[in-house]
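We modelled the chain as a single entity of 113 amino acids. Its sequence is:
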Amino acid sequence: MRAPARVRPSRAVPSPRQDRRRQHSIGQATRGAAQPTASVRLAPHFVVDMPVARIVNPITHANWEGKGVQPDVVVPSRAALEVATVVILKRMLAIETGPARRARIAQWLRDEQ
């Protein structure tokens, strides 16, 4: 689940997983801060944040600096948990073969919607 307020380079793990279709994200695009920074004091009352590395996606050979990581399902961040729950339950229902378990998953899905 994603929200624009997320600016840390922690997107380095989800971005390649999403590109390989091993992860699905729901919410809003991140703000696009891909490069880790360090604060450097230039004068007693002047500090600047400087990039100290460049994160590169091993699949696309790019990064998300300035554009953010785009979600698979775009919804307001406040609705992301509920939407993610419904998406997961629908996928579980699609692959479940046991009748009792399918009935329980279907009931959970009805309760969520």
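As a brief sanity check on the tokenised model: The first strand starts at residue 26 and ends at 27. The two ends are 19 Å apart (CA to CA).
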